[in-house]
Amino acid sequence: MQSATANDLAAVPAGSGTTTAAIPWHLAIAACGACCIPLGALWDISWHMSIGRDTFWTPAHIVIYLGGVVPGLTCGWLALRATFFGSQTGRATTVRFWGARAPLGAWISIWGCFGMLTSAPFDDWWHNTYGLDVQILSPPHSLLAVGMFSVVLGVLLLVLSWKNTVPEAQRAGVARLFVFMVGIMTTTNSIIVLEYSFPNSQHALTFYLIVCGHYPALLVMAARAGNLRWGATCAAGVYMLFYSLMIWLLPLFSAQPMLAPIYNPVTHMVPPPFPVWLVVPAVVLDLLIGWDRRRVVPAVCNRRLEDANATDGDWKSPAPWWRDWLLALALGVAFLGLLLPVQWHFSAFMLSPASDNWLFAGHRHWPYTSNLGPWMNDFWRLDRDPVTARGLAFALALACGACRVGLMFGNWMLKVRR
Fold first, then answer.
1. Which of 115, 49, 101 has its CA nearest to residue 265?
2. In the predicted model, what is the mean pLDDT of the chain?
3. Same domain, 248 and 274
């Protein structure tokens, strides 16, 4: 994939502008709606772990589907405006689909909204027929997960296209909103693998394989496309803060199990497990990508001075094709090299009595269906899924590959205009 153009790479850093472009109301509404998706999903998981499934119309379910309907309706309004009332200039920044026009992100969010709404009656029928889910990713939940991901991705692309069209000196606020949406996407995606993220699983190889294949691409994408000094760190911080707020707030509400069998009679809403410490490797990812940006941008500017007649469409970055591959290798090594010792020791802390407090909520994430016992303080699957040198090499390959994908998408996102 070609590197970003000189105009993109040599852009004024978002944090250095003196003014900030006003964020359109439709972006603000769509972003707020997208935040309802991880909020409702984590609330719904807590509802199942604390109360059980009593009816489809729980408050958590309503919040989840509001997260699809609000961005979907907002993007539908964008499509109607662009199709029937848009100017010629405005239509040039849209994508045509079946004769209608809308920004690319709007189409993706609309599709995701339909996917989420389709999963609703399917999920209700599934539970009425087969009972409770054994795992998070049942067939209706898989369709719901794809729809949720599409809605958040569409809103992310809407914010991105607006960021890339405003003047460079006014991109600060929109760039922060973009990084915030990457954090919301990271939070949404993490729910899919939540059952593998309990502290008891963090001495097994599967956990590190999932983490290395799941998170680095999003963090690297935030750092490259956000063009902020601490883009990956802020995205990881949004993810960790979102989970932390749920951990701290959910136990404040009383709850009583309503569906047998009840082995653990909880009295309050059960919080999710403590999030993965993504903010630690994210700091180094930002430093490495920032170092690479500082080396490329002066070369870009020098080449443009040498060839004043070159246009942005004809001009290509002087960085060789292999530069991003070497950067991805360094990013992958940094990600796994930092996350492994942090999570290894932190998970041991989470299984100790010292973590049983309001801050970390250790041993408070067990559902009412769990028969409490010594197994709660043990690491799981150590005999069947140990951390080995070969397994870590595979995890490192996944991390490097994910970082390369993040760089490719980040380069592409620098050019998105519609």
1. 49
2. 83
3. yes
